[in-house]
Amino acid sequence: MNNYEIDVGRPPQEVMIALSLIEDFQKKNKTKYNIKIDFDYGMEYSAGEFDEEKPNVIYLNPDNCLPTEESLALGSVEDGSIFGTMMHEFAHLILLGHRVDVRTAYLKNFNLQRQWINDYCETDIEEEMAEVFRLYLVNPLLLKLILPDAFKFFKKQFKSPSPCSQKHTVAMYNDFSWTVKEHLRDTFGIDHDVYEDKIIKHI
Fold first, then answer.
1. What is the pTM of this model?
2. Given Cys at both, which of 51, 83, 122, 180 links 14, Cβ 3.0 to 4.6 Å?
3. What does the pLDDT look like over 109-120, one tens digit per residue?
4. C-alpha distances in angstroms, 82 versus 21, 62, 74, 134?
5. Please, are residues 152 and 122 in contact by the beta-carbon 8 Å criterion?
C-alpha cells in the first residue's frame, strides 16, 4: 500500500472512502504517489486546492464542502461533498502534478470541443478537465453515457478504480436525491429503466 499522510486526528469518513478509491487507482495504474491530505480551515472561499509546487498535497477545508446528506450526489455530475472535492483535487494532482502529458493531450483534443458536465466546468478548461476526470474515477459509465469522447480519452490513459458497469451505476443512481435525478434527466437525458434495471440515455 502507498503512504498517505493526513494532518488530522480523526478524518471524516468521506476522506477515508476517497483514499480507498485513490489507493485502488494507484494499484490499477501502478503508481506510487505518497499523498498528503492537508486540512486547511484558513481557506476562506475554497473547499479544496492543489498547488503545482507541492504535487503530492491535497488541501481541503471541510467547512466549505456540502454535507453528504445535503448533496446526495456521490458519483453524479456535480458533487460538492468532501468526497467529491477530494476526488476533484486528486484529478488535479494527477493531471497537473504528475501526468502533464495527459493534460496536454486533453487540451489538444478538447480545446475547441469543450466537455461540459456542470457549471464549474465553465470556470476554465483546467477545472473542466478535473471535473470530467473526477467522474471517470467515480462513475465511469455515467461519463460514458454523457460524454463518450471524454470517456474514451481517459480510458486510453488510465484504468478507472470504479467499475464501468450497470450494477455500479444503478447503485449510485439509487442513492441520488430526487433533485439530482431530475437534473440528470432534464439536462442529459439520463434515466433509470426500472424494467431492465439499467441506466439509459434518451436520444
1. 0.93
2. 83
3. 998 788 889 988
4. 14, 6, 10, 13
5. no
